[in-house]
Write a structure and sequence with these properties.
Blueprint lengths: L14 H8 L6 H18 L8 H10 L6 H14 L5
Helix pairs in contact: 2-3
Length: 89
């Protein structure tokens, strides 16, 4: 489970925006975690004591990230989800 929490009032990240941007290249949960970690690394490269990760860090991380999930894998998981009756959130 990915937990995103609001910390302080300097947050300029819109989760819905990031979600819509990532739909251009569908990501698994592990890949979303990797993008979040990359955004944190980018923030720390600017300032190793960075107090927050900003929108531009997430956008840069999304831009750099190359998904590993193929279309065939996505179809497999979708078919599996349908056959098992699993509902997505």
């Amino acid at each position: 489970m990915l937990v995103i929490k609001h910390v302080g009032d300097r947050v300029d990240v819109e989760v819905d925006e990031l979600s819509s941007l990532s739909h251009a290249k569908p990501l698994s949960g592990a890949e979303i975690t990797a993008v979040c970690r990359e955004a944190a690394v980018l923030a720390m490269e600017e300032n190793r004591l960075a107090a927050h990760v900003s929108r531009r860090h997430f956008l840069a991380a999304l831009e750099q990230f190359r998904p590993r999930l193929t279309s065939a894998m996505m179809r497999f998981y979708e078919e599996y989800r349908t056959q098992c009756g699993v509902l997505s959130l």
